[in-house]
Design a protein that fits this description.
Blueprint: H1 19-22, E1 63-75, E2 86-91, E3 94-95, E4 99-100, E5 106-115, H2 118-122, E6 130-135, E7 142-146, E8 154-157, H3 171-174, H4 177-191, H5 195-208, H6 213-225, H7 229-242, H8 250-259, H9 263-274, H10 283-294, H11 298-311, H12 319-330, H13 334-347, H14 354-368
Parallel strand pairs: 1-8
Antiparallel strand pairs: 1-5, 2-3, 2-4, 2-6, 6-7
Helix pairs in contact: 4-5, 4-6, 5-6, 6-7, 7-8, 8-9, 8-10, 9-10, 10-11, 10-12, 11-12, 12-13, 13-14
């Protein structure tokens, strides 16, 4: 657990955890009682020790095949956006040229897709990994993660509310040009795995603008990559001091608390986050549910896990189903508990804690029997 804190994956525009990353989550053994339930790792990008889905192991020459990713953007209520939406795409940590939606909210992005060999690409067994962000003034940015050429991301823009959190810090708008340029150089260094170089650039940005929350956040990412956990935590707290509505820092802060089994700290961090109604980062509701479950706030754990599930349209947070099932079992709603724990295994049949969950299901079935 403690080693995990030093390798949490961080990137720029992600706001959700993939099912692949969820496979890294584990639960301690035992069929009953409150138990530590660490969150999935790799929130902001793929984990260092997990291969992308469909990565062929046969050693053959890689080929590059052009792929057209298509998707759609809607606003609250499901209608088309009032004006063209900016679509930004990063594939395998390489930024692609931005584009815009049409009047109906549809978009298409041409990206190179790599596969180990052409036959695998034809069958959809690809190494493609893209993050797609949709942005429109007056709305929260929406983000989707794409793992296959057959994916068609569907993004919903929620109306900007001054009381709610956002994935883009408002300090970004006020940062001087020189600070933004230094930050961009830092991001480029992060993409090249130059952690110390990235740290130096973010520190330059903060010398120019000490209240630049985005730079504080990215500085924390660079420091964590170098194993400087305390400095990373301090940087993320500085980001929140500069902009408390900036959602991204809450995520790694919650992960660091979970890595040390500091559930009360994790609950306090995520209490602040969910007060901002983080619809753009539903993983914060999952983390809140995990923390509250472990400190015995079962009613709140149930509420937050339900909220995470309702926002998780693409089933990227299967762990929320499990937490909800455990919370329901705690109040003797065994039929409901069975539904959600079974749903967890349906979404993640190869979960590392599958045997434990099956044992818990068997125990709940005994109680549910008339």
């Amino acid at each position: 657990m403690r080693r995990r804190a030093a390798v949490l994956g961080l990137a720029i525009i992600a706001s959700t955890v993939s099912v692949r990353a969820q496979q890294g989550a584990t639960a301690s053994p035992g069929a009953g009682g409150t138990e530590p339930i660490p969150p999935a790792r790799g929130v902001f990008g793929p984990g260092d020790d997990v291969a992308a889905p469909g990565l062929a192991t046969t050693q053959r020459a890689a080929v590059s095949i052009p792929v057209m990713l298509s998707g759609k953007v809607v606003v609250d209520g499901g209608g088309p956006p009032p004006s063209p939406v900016l679509i930004e795409t990063a594939c395998d940590h390489v930024q692609r040229s931005p584009t815009y939606t049409d009047k109906k909210g549809r978009f298409a992005v041409n990206v190179p897709q790599k596969s180990e060999y052409a036959e695998a690409a034809i069958q959809g067994d690809a190494t493609l990994h893209c993050m797609i962000q949709a942005s429109l003034p007056g709305y929260h940015p929406a983000v989707s993660e794409v793992w296959s050429m057959t994916d068609h991301p569907f993004l919903t823009l929620h109306t900007l509310d001054p009381t709610k959190g956002t994935l883009v810090s408002l300090t970004e708008l006020d940062a001087p040009k020189r600070a933004r340029e230094a930050s961009e150089r830092g991001l480029a260094a992060l993409r090249n795995n130059d952690w110390s170089g990235a740290q130096a650039e973010f520190e330059k940005a903060l010398e120019i603008d000490p209240h630049y929350a985005t730079a504080w956040y990215e500085l924390g990412a660079a420091q964590l990559r170098q194993g400087r956990v305390a400095q990373a935590r301090a940087a993320w707290n500085k980001a929140l001091e500069s902009d408390r509505r900036f959602l991204k820092p809450y995520i790694p802060l919650a992960e660091l608390a979970a890595a040390g089994s500091r559930w009360s700290d994790m609950a306090a961090i995520t209490d602040r986050a969910v007060a901002l109604d983080p619809v753009d980062a539903p993983i914060l509701y999952l983390y809140h549910a995990i923390a509250c479950f472990n400190v015995g706030r079962m009613d709140v754990a149930e509420q937050s896990s339900r909220r995470a599930i309702s926002l998780d349209a693409h089933h990227q947070l299967p762990r929320a189903e499990y937490i909800l099932g455990r919370a329901l079992a705690h109040r003797a709603d065994y039929p409901g508990a069975l539904d959600h724990m079974r749903r967890y295994l349906q979404l993640l049949p190869q979960a590392p804690d599958a045997a434990v969950v099956r044992a818990q299901i068997a125990e709940a079935e005994k109680h549910a029997s008339p």
